[in-house]
Structures are given as C-alpha cells and as structure tokens.
Amino acid sequence: MNKKDKYIFPAVFSIEEDGISVEFPDLPGCLSCGDTDDDALYMAKDALELHLYGLEDEGEPIPEPSPISSLNLDKNQFVALIEVWMPPIRDEMAEKAVKKTLTLPKWLNDLAEEKKVNFSQVLQNALISYLGLKKIKDKPSYHSLLKPKRHITKK
After folding, report:
1. Tally of helices (H runs) and strands (E runs) in the chain
2. Closest to 56 measured CA to CA, from 87, 79, 35, 81
3. Cα(125)–Cα(135) distance, integer angstroms
4. What span, in angstroms and rounded, lies between the C-alpha atoms of 5 and 90?
C-alpha cells in the first residue's frame, strides 16, 4: 500500500439536540462527536487521523474520498472537508510506549529488585547502546523505520 502524507476527506456533521455527531461516509466506523462546532471539528480531525493511521498500520486500502456534490444530506447536516497531515501522526504513534514481556533468571531479577532497578530504563539504555545510538535523541523517525531492515549482528 502506498501511503500518502496528506489526506482530505469529507465529514458529515449532524446537528442534534444533545450535540454534533460526525461521520465520514467513505470510512465506515470513523465516527466522532462534539458539544460545539469547534469541538466537533477538532474531534473529527482527531478521529480521521487515528482511523487512517489504523488502516495504514494494518495494511488496509484507503479509499478515495467522495466528491462533496455526491453526498445526500438531511436538513440538520452540513459537510466540511477535513485535512490531515500524517507524518507527525506516524511519528507520535511510533513514539508510544510498548509493553514487552521478557525472561531473566530469578536471581538476577531478585538482585535488581533489591537495588530498585528501573527495568524499562535499563532495557532502553541497553538497546540504545546495542543499536549504536548515542542517545535517545538519535532515535530514528517513523519514515526511516519503513526502510528495509538490516540484520543487526552482535559484535
């Protein structure tokens, strides 16, 4: 799947007594809502970013957006084009913490717990060193992670 950096999709805003609901006709399941116009617009953008990221991450195709003129609206509805720029979203999602399960000898675990070792920090530091990064700021961007992976061998 070829990922684009910018997407623009029409969102249908439905004004109801209890707020504004938002749906994207081309993206089933991409729904949001808000109490005010500003809130609904913000939430629509957020929902679109996360939905498109999920499709990209799963390797699912992203449909072409429908022309606004093809949308049939009710009296209480209006359409707005929602634009998202994906590179910072991809970087933000790549930065999220990931839980890992690992195994180590009980004696080592006991000693580390006795010394109040922060296992996550030690593992991060060890991986940074092992991968030849100077510091956490040297971490690769999401785009560089998409390059073909090289096998890292222990020196």
Report:
1. 5, 4
2. 87
3. 8
4. 10
**Contacts of residue 141, Cβ cutoff 8 Å, sequence gap at least 6:** 91, 94
Q: How far apart are CA 148 and CA 131, in angstroms?
A: 16
CA distances from 140 to 12, 57, 86 (A): 37, 18, 17
Task: Determine the length of the chain.
Answer: 155
pLDDT for the residue numbered 121: 86
- pLDDT value at residue 139: 57
Instruction: Round to whole Å and give the CA distance between 121 and 135.
Output: 13
CA separation for the pair 46, 23 (Å, rounded):
12
Ramachandran assignment for 41, one of left (phi > 0), alpha (psi -120 to 50 degrees), beta (any other): alpha
User: Which residue do the tokens 């629509």 mark?
Assistant: 44
Q: Could you report the per-residue pLDDT of 38-85, keeping only the tens digit for each?
A: 999 999 999 999 999 999 999 999 999 999 999 999 999 999 999 999
Residue with the bigger pLDDT between 119 and 21: it is 21
Is 84 in contact with 45 (CB distance < 8 Å)?
yes
Q: What does the block give as tokens for 37?
A: 């116009």
